[in-house]
Structure formats: C-alpha cells, structure tokens
Amino acid sequence: MGNYTQAQIEQMQKDDMQYHLHPTTVITDMEAWGGPRIIEEGSGIRIKSVEGKTYIDCGAGLWLNNVGMGRTELAEVAKEQMEKLCYFQSFNGFSHPNVIDLAKKVSSMVPIDNARIFFTSGGSESNDTAYKLARVYWYLKGKQTKNNIIGRTRAYHGVSYGALSATSLPGFWDGFGPLVPNFHHIPHPHCYFCPWGKEKGSCGLECAEALEQKILEVGADNVAAFTAEPVIGTGGAIVPPEGYYQRIREICTKHEVLFIADEVICGFGRTGKMFGIENWGVQPDIMMMAKGITSGYFPVGGVALSAEIYAPIKKHGVFMHGYTYSAHPVGCAVALKNIEILERENLVEKSRTMGEVLREQVRALNLPIIGEVRGIGLINAVQLVKDPEKREKFDAGLAFGKKVAHKAWEKGLALRPLIDDALQLSPALIITEADIDELVGKLGEAIAETYAEIGRS
Ligand SMILES: Cc1ncc(COP(=O)(O)O)c(C=O)c1O
After folding, report:
1. Helix (H) or strand (E) segment spanning residue 443
2. Whose CA is nearest to atom 13 of ligand 1?
3. Which residues lie closer than 8 Å to 199 by C-beta, 6 or more apart?
4. Long-range pairs for 172-181 at CB < 8 Å and ≥24 separation?
5. CA of 359: how far to CAs of 39, 433, 449, 452, in Å?
6. CB 424 within 8 A of CB 238
7. How many angstroms is it from 264 CA to the middle of ligand 1?
8. Is residue 401 within 6 Å of ligand 1 at its C-beta?
9. How far does the centroid of ligand 1 lie from the alpha carbon of residue 423, in Å?
10. Alpha carbon 343 to its chain's center
11. In testing the pocket of ligand 1, which one of 119, 159, 232, 291 has its CB within 8 Å of the most ligand atoms?
C-alpha cells in the first residue's frame, strides 16, 4: 500500500502533465500510460512508486546512484553543512574547508599527476568546462588555430551547447542548430556491430586509426582535443577493444592533441576501477566527472586538469569561467562522505565482481534473441537482435526494447531501453547475488514474453 489514494495519484498525474515539461521524455508514451510513473521513495537498489509498489532500479537512476539510496549518513552531512554554511561563492578567491578537502582527495584519486580540480554542478557543465580549458590552453600557448574538438558517434556528453556539439546520438540535435562550430566525430568502436565489418582480435584497430585520419584531415595545427567516454554509456554500454585507448593516447601525443576522458558515468567505481580509463592504464590530460561523485545525493560535477594545462592559465592570471554552484559547500560535504563510503565498503571491487555475475547470469538465460551481453563492472547492456547469427537488428518500428522495458516495469523492474534495442543494466554498486537472481529472472521473463507476443510478427 502506498501513502496516496487512487484519486490523489490521478490528480498528481494530471497536474504533472499540465505543468511539467519532462526532460528527454516521449510525451505521447507518458500520456498513453495515463501519466508519469511517480516515484516516492528509494532504498538500496530499489525504488517505490506512489502506488506502494517496489521496483529494482536497473539503471541506478541515470547511471549515478553508486552507493545505493537511503543512506542516512549522507543526509546527515548535508543537514549539518546546510546549518553551518549553506552556501558561499568560490569566485573571487573565496574557498571553504570542504572544497579544499574534496579537491585534495579527488586529485589524489585521478590518473593525472598533480591534478587540479574545477567544480561544477553536473556533467554538461563539466564537459563545457573541459572544452574551454582545452581551447584556452592552446590559445594561451600562442596556437590560436588549435580549437577543433574531435568526439565520436554514439557519444553522449550532455545537452548544454558545448556538450551537445560533442554528443552524437539520434534526436539530440534536431531543431537545436546551429551547434558550436569546430566539433567533429569519428566512428565509435563497437565490436559487435563493427562499422568496418571486422572481428575483435583480428582487426587493425581501425576505430582508433580513424582518429589519426581525422586529425590529418582537419590539420593537427587546428585540433585542440579528442574526447571520449572511456566506456560509452547512453550510446549502448560499449566497451572498446583491447589496445584502443593505448593507440588513442599515442596518436594524441604524436599530434599534440589533448586527450579528454569523460568520466561522468564511468568515474567513481562504475567500471570496476575508480575511473574508467584506468582499465587501460592510460593518462588523460583532462577528465570530466559528475554523477557518482555524490551518487546523486547532491548535484556536483568536476573537471581534473594536469599541471601542464594549468601552467599557462596561472601565467595568464585568471580562468574567466565559473558557475554559481561551483564548489557548493553542501555538495562538497556530500561528495566527501560518498567517496568515504565507496572506499570503506570496497564498492569499486564489488562493481567488478558483481558485474561478472550479472553478465554470466544474463548469458545463462540462453534466449534466442540475446545477441550480446556486454559491459565491464556495472555498466552493461543486453543487446537484443532479430537474428544473432547475422547480427540483424529488429525493425526500428517494432520498438522491441521499449516493449520489453514496459513489460519489465509490470514485473517490478525499472529498466531503460537504449538505442538499437539494447537494455541498460547498471544498478547501484551495492547489488547482491540475491538481487541479481531476482533482476535476471524478471528480465528473462520480460524478454521471453515480449518475444512470444510480438517478436515473431
Ligand atoms: C558521459 C556523460 N557525460 C555528460 C553527461 C551530462 O551530464 P548532465 O546530465 O549532468 O549534464 C552525461 C549524462 O548522462 C553522460 O552520461
């Protein structure tokens, strides 16, 4: 039982549909359900709707709730900090104890030597900040033409104009142009649907070589940076082949192009390492983070930059960029406590081991339309296909993944379909084997029943 009557719930849904413009929501779908699904509570890996029904959150919110929901100690530090100092600016040479501790802590964690941290309130702001840092770095070094940024197809970097210009996913650009000039995209690495028709292990890493070709095409003197999510998230939980990032780093260094890692999803344990790029032992020049830094308990983001990037800015005297909520005292307090929990409970290692259990169990479902179960740590996707032999996708009009997600919801799973009928499996890092049994059992039923109903049509 929930805390609301049916009449109250219907009224809330009506009001939501009348007054609320939802981000990235197909309005007709929501209306067809009778209104939004209203979530009232969260505990551990589960959420509860206003009807009183409990669901496993297969996506940890938007890939962010790493330590699980309902952590009293995070609420307590937020309350304490709000009472002590709810806000003060970090512009104009001001600071406060929590941001100093957090910057020092994050600097000691990132795979960048002597890193310095700039704070934001989320991923898009972190991305815009990173591109501005890259451009201003070359500008201050007297190389004003080095201002082009190369990203990848299937990338999601956010929706502010800089981040949107680096993003490359269907729908996100429609009607919003013109975008920021001098952003380019190379094909993303995707071994299952390889754009070059090659097989993992026997290819020439064409996906990495594409970066060198693009740099030569644009001219190395015109390229500021290459940016990538170490593991593509929203674009389908896509892990690059072995050797990819090592080759990317070589190409960037050779052509004096900065390597910017977008760790907004991967950072803080999601891939089974503290940061995604550590899976390949490669050092970026700049890194963006957000989401897992507070597990979503407070909106905080950040950018780590190397001493090399900082040097010309220091000489210039000012980084003329900042957000009102940069280094928010409450956000910094929550981030520090969240990182303490991640470390204390060994959640990064749990992410690695539970990810393996999860993928094994989904594979063991042995369903004829599961083409691939991919991922690393707890950033995973189940790729549904019409014909695994030929790696043939379902007709887009069938919206197969969306239908599976709808059925999964009826069974108690909050499951998100990604592009091309891939299903997102990225629960909180505290997930247990018993939770995985329940999740995979319901997932298997949802896929099999949807296939029985419409798959063969
Ligand atoms: C890799 C990546 N970068 C950036 C963003 C944008 O973050 P935000 O929505 O906090 O602006 C996201 C959001 O999902 C993301 O996945």
Report:
1. helix 433-450
2. 158
3. 191
4. none
5. 28, 12, 21, 23
6. no
7. 6
8. no
9. 18
10. 20
11. 291
Cα dihedral 208, 213, 216, 222 sign: negative
Domain at 72-344, CATH from 1.20.1070.10, 3.30.540.10, 3.90.45.10, 3.40.640.10: 3.40.640.10
Residue carrying structure tokens 């996906």: 207
Query: Which residues are CB-contacts of 11 (< 8 A; sequence separation ≥ 6)?
Result: none
DSSP helix/strand/coil, 14: helix
Look at the block and give the residue holding tokens 């070359």.
138
DSSP H/E element including 46: strand 46-49
Domain ranges for the chain: 37-67+346-455, 72-344
Fold of 37-67+346-455: Aspartate Aminotransferase, domain 1 (3.90.1150)
Mean pLDDT, each 10-residue run in order, the chain (457 residues): 92 97 95 95 98 98 98 98 98 98 98 98 98 98 98 98 97 98 98 95 96 98 99 98 98 98 98 98 98 98 98 98 98 99 98 98 97 98 96 94 97 97 98 98 98 76
The CA distance from 116 to 304, in Å, is 6
| Phi, psi for 364 (deg, rounded to 5) | -70, -10
